[in-house]
Task: structure prediction
Amino acid sequence: MVANEFTILYVGSRMAKISEREKDTYANSDFAMVGLSGDCNMSGRQFWKGETHAIVKAMFVKGHNKGIVVHWKNQVASWAKNNPTDPNAVAAKAWLPLWQVRPFYTADELAPLWPALAIAVGHTDRWPQILKSARRLEYELDFAGLPRLSQSENLRKYFIVERFDYWKKATLDQIERELNV
Result:
């Protein structure tokens, strides 16, 4: 057995790593087993080489700064402007004005933006053929360790994408102001 082999188990939205040795213990349990690989092969290729890892890594590198979402939005606008014949670029230009800039989003809100973010952080320069579902993206974001709002159970669905430390400690009033509630 390779020392770093493990299985990912999902219980609801919680995730746990277990060793190959422990796998048999859970085989007949209520856990849902997903993939066996030290590199966590979530999509037929290594997770660490995919766009989710690249985007989350960029969020951790620059996410402590205010305004990173505005920067990404400008990057996508520039890409769309430079690719006028690409139908995805035309679509991106159409929805860019509707992209509400704020420091946290749900997986449902991030899923349609995800290809644009992959372009904005420089992971790719083209739109993918197949889009990721919000549920799959949510699992990948949890796996990558992107923090969530935790001030209440209702806010737990929001992933923090900028100023992590600030928003982890923010009051409910501050969060509601950002959400325009």
